[in-house]
Amino acid sequence: GENVEQHPSTLSVQEGDSAVIKCTYSDSASNYFPWYKQELGKGPQLIIDIRSNVGEKKDQRIAVTLNKTAKHFSLHITETQPEDSAVYFCAASQGSSYKLIFGSGTRLLVRP
Amino acid sequence: DAMVIQNPRYQVTQFGKPVTLSCSQTLNHNVMYWYQQKSSQAPKLLFHYYDKDFNNEADTPDNFQSRRPNTSFCFLDIRSPGLGDAAMYLCATLAGVGTDTQYFGPGTRLTVL
Predict the structure, then answer these.
(1) Which residues contact A15 (CB under 8 A, 6 or more apart)?
(2) In terms of Cα–Cα distance, which of A34, A5, A11 is closest to A110?
(3) How many angstroms separate the CA atoms of B73 and B18, rounded?
(4) In the A/B pair of chains, how many CB contacts fall below 8 A?
């Protein structure tokens, strides 16, 4: 079955700097890759996603890139702000049931 | 407006005392999911529904059951909660027909005394 690895587990950046979180997946049949932000005590919130027919997607300060050949995808956050501090999860999905396999999460801390 | 609603937000139960968590969704989608998330871990899928078809993950303990009386509502029943079942329980559904975008509810934090 699918396995998703996520790095780093913790990331501390200065406000205004960029943050990059990387994930790799094992099953080449996976075709959908969402990223979720989870704040303490809340449910995961979808922030951006990408499908296997696209190499890059951007939404304001957030971007995701996908390399199907290498089976990895990355989240890029530019001009980080303290409110970006949270746990970020990548995930991979395939098939008609759309089951998500999550990475282990990255705790991002943006220092003011 | 909230698309996935979970009640209660916090639930305390005693060891071995059955507990039911509820979830409702306003998207009227035929797929719903239940996840368990333990502290500092990723969400782990317990089971999902496609309409009324129940799909259990292979490693979901028998202690966890679910009911879906109609499209909008889904319940998670924990028959005999153990200390290891203390976790956040998340419900999710899909954003629309033919889409794979999952929206999560706010979760129910379960404490087992």
Answers:
(1) A80, A81, A82, A110, A111, A112
(2) A11
(3) 19
(4) 50
Encoded tokens for B1: 């407006």
Using CA atoms, how far residue B72 sits from A13, A56, B95, B106, in Å, is 42, 35, 13, 16
Q: Which of A90, A112, A100 is nearest to A21 (CA)?
A: A90
pLDDT tens, N- to C-terminus, chain B (113 residues): 668 999 999 999 999 999 999 999 998 888 999 999 999 999 999 999 988 888 898 899 999 999 999 999 999 999 999 999 999 999 999 887 777 889 999 999 999 99
Query: Which residues have CB under 8 Å from A38's CB, separation 6+?
Result: A44, A45, A86, A87, A88, A89, A105
DSSP single-letter state for residue A17: S
Of B43, B101, B107, nearest to A34 by CB-CB distance is: B101
Q: What are the structure tokens assigned to B91, written together?
A: 């419900």
Spatial distance between the Cα atoms of A39 and B106, rounded to a whole number of angstroms:
10
In a 13 Å sphere around the CA of A26, the CA atoms on its Cβ side amount to 9
CB A35 within 8 A of CB A105: no
Write the burial class of residue A31 (CB in 10 Å: 0-12 exposed, 13-18 middle, 19+ buried).
middle
Q: Are strands A56-59 and A106-111 parallel, antiparallel or unpaired?
A: unpaired
Is residue B83 helix, strand or coil? helix
Q: Which residues of B touch A43 (CB under 8 A)?
A: 4, 6, 90, 104-107
A106 phi/psi in degrees, rounded to 5 = -130, 125
